[in-house]
Design brief:
MetI-like fold, 144 residues, 7 helices
Amino acid sequence: MFNYKTLNTIFASLGLFYQGICMTIALTFCALLIGTILGFCFGILNCNKVKIKIISALINAYVLLVRGTPLYVQVLIFYFALPEITGVNLSPFTAGMIALGCNSAGYVTEIVRCGINSIPEGQWDLSLPTSLFSKDFIGFSYII
């Protein structure tokens, strides 16, 4: 049975629905930006060509920790535990943004590392001499 009271409630809540959509899009964009930047940096530092043992061990521990715990637990840690440890209170938006960004950074790190490590050694050897004489590394990007 159709109830007009329910329909009025839905139309009255459209403003809140719109605010929720805008907040979700902003949170997604910020977390994606954090995750992509950190993930690319960690992935490049963790690939076989650039591998530094201590940095690689720290990145591997980070990726193992992030990928091994549920996202919900990470959000709770950033919102409740981090302010207790550091004394800095975070807004729910900031805590969620940091938690989602750090979580996606762990996955992007592995994607970038595996992508770089999948390039055959012959292509690396061929790309380096051709890119030495160009200022914008066109040979490097074309061959790889």
